[in-house]
Amino acid sequence: MRAVRKHTDCKWVLLYIERWFKAPAQLQDGTLLDRRKGTPQGGVVSALLANLFLHYALDRWMERHFPEIPFERYADDVICHCVSEKQAKFLLARIKRRLAECRLELNLQKTKIVYCKCSYRKGNYANESFDFLGFTFRPRLSRSRKGQYFVNFSPAVSNKATKAIRQEIRNWNLHRRTDKSLEDFACMFNPIIRGWINYYGGYYKSALYRTFWHLDRVLSRWASRKYKRLRGRQRRSQQWLRRIRNCQPRLFAHWSFAYALAGR
Predict the structure, then answer these.
(1) Which residues are paired to 154 by β-bridges?
(2) Residue 116 and residue 129 in contact, taking contact as beta carbons nearer than 8 Å
(3) Which H/E stretch holds residue 153?
(4) Strand, coil or helix: what is 31?
């Protein structure tokens, strides 16, 4: 009985997946477009099917044929760590062939060989940076525990991610919420701000400072609209917000992060 039930459940799962494949895609104007292959970008099942398929089409294949090359994969974004350009070109050709066997193809606009330039890799290459999971990996000036400066190939929040954060801040429409107080804003948005800090602040924290200083400029503009004594006086609004920040440095999650760490 248990085996029959398991077989029935699998059959229903396959039917649902088949319906996802056959369902038409709806365009922005409302028209329906029949699909011959694949799943739409951003579809509910796209990420699930991509992970299941690439686990066997790429992950297990890499473990069998190139166990000495470490790699990371998130959905359909993959990074392979090669020791030389020759090895990287050979691996790229093999991956292209493997994906072609699985009826897949690489996105040639996003796929590239990157030279991880640092203090002990001083050569030059056409590509010396790449983006992955909201971070930009590129050569950066770092300081060792002994206080010595050196060039390190390390991650920091990407420009695309900071633009998305600023867009999210604009979507809050703080300048229109003159019925709210700073305490209300802190309760509403601190969970989101902490999420940004916890994720993007793990590496090269200073790359986030300007984005959070932008948030404070938005708050000062809100204050100039809310309070008559500050109306039309942007500098006085900034000074007002600075006094509150000095008295309540933990009111907003980013205040102790973007100002205390920066020494401001």
Answers:
(1) 138
(2) no
(3) strand 149-157
(4) coil
Sequence length of the chain is 264
Here the contacts of 59-66 (C-beta below 8 Å, separation 24 or greater) are 61/98, 65/94, 66/91, 66/94
> How many C-alpha atoms does 123 have within 13 Å on its Cβ side?
9
| SS3 call for 170 | helix
Which one has a higher pLDDT value, 49 or 208?
Answer: 208
Instruction: State pLDDT tens for residues 159-213.
Output: 999 999 999 999 999 888 888 999 999 999 999 999 999 999 988 888 999 999 9
Q: Which of 90, 89, 137 has its CA nearest to residue 113?
A: 89
What does DSSP say about strands 130-132 and 135-143: parallel, antiparallel, or unpaired? antiparallel
Q: How is residue 89 written in tokens?
A: 């070109």
91: left (phi over 0), alpha (psi -120 to 50) or beta: alpha
Closest of 92, 80, 93, 75 to residue 39, by C-alpha = 75
According to the model, what pLDDT value does residue 107 have? 84
| pTM (global) more than 0.85 | no
